[in-house]
Design a protein that fits this description.
alpha/beta; 6 helices; globular; binds zinc ion
Length: 196
Amino acid sequence: MMKNKIRECLVKIFLYLSRIYFFGEKYECSCCGKKFRRFLNFNYKLPIYNKNIYLETYKNTICPYCLSLPRHRIICEYLNNNINLLKNKKILIFAAERGIKKWLDNRNIKYKTADLYEKADLKIDITDINLKDNSYDVVFCNHVLEHVDNYRKAIEELNRIIATNGVLICSVPIDITLKETMETKNKETKEERKNK
Ligand SMILES: [Zn+2]
């Protein structure tokens, strides 16, 4: 707990200094709408990342204000052009990203967040969702399913809680050069996942 608090505090200081250091107008974040002379670099440390693919893409990547990545900004760009999808809808966000929340907050769009380990409005196990059928019109579930052992069950559950004609905004990491899905041999324990 103490460790998390210290980390949170250090992140805040780091971001505060970054915003000053990267002050400028050249790049605008599609999530929070803030402008900077450049974004932060993103270091792909995990060995699963293919260095040939990511070598050039890790620079100038993270928004110093909302920490959004390109994958978050793509979603917000899409939403900018399809805002009617969200108007007067019941919205649920799994593992809510700061950038997506900023985009919704800036437009005064209400939503609920869900997470199994992190602080959220609802504590939900995505493979056994404690909600009624057709509970939400729009569900965000980005970069979650790759961490779930029984992801098929999770998809069934998402399908169950999303209303008829509802929308699922879902993404997972994909390397289109791979012929087969990479399955992690040693799954993370809940504690490992929680402490990330
Ligand atoms: Zn941002």
